[in-house]
Amino acid sequence: FFVNITSHVEWYISRGVEVTALLSMRDRSITEKNKLREHCSMPEKAEEEYELASSLMKEAMLKYGERSSKGRPHVIPVSYEGLMQFQEVYLLNLYKQLGINSSYLP
Fold it and tell me: H helices of the chain, where?
């Protein structure tokens, strides 16, 4: 199941909604190992899925990664490994990028 991020962002923008999509990015080797272990027993299909997902995310970042009229991008890539490694610092920085005034830490 894949979502075309670009068309979703465009749909919201066309309706006057200020939208920001967060793209959850994973290390490729971790993604591949997990997919093959839990979801897909065919390496060639797993590779095709990874390439399609990467293509959709790259398209969205190229088209909507620039600042919007509200001063933040419509698309922000988020590194899962970065979040796990830097935790509080990473999350608080993400809040700042999104204009969220919070110090909540799960």
Answer: 5-14, 28-38, 43-64, 80-86, 88-98
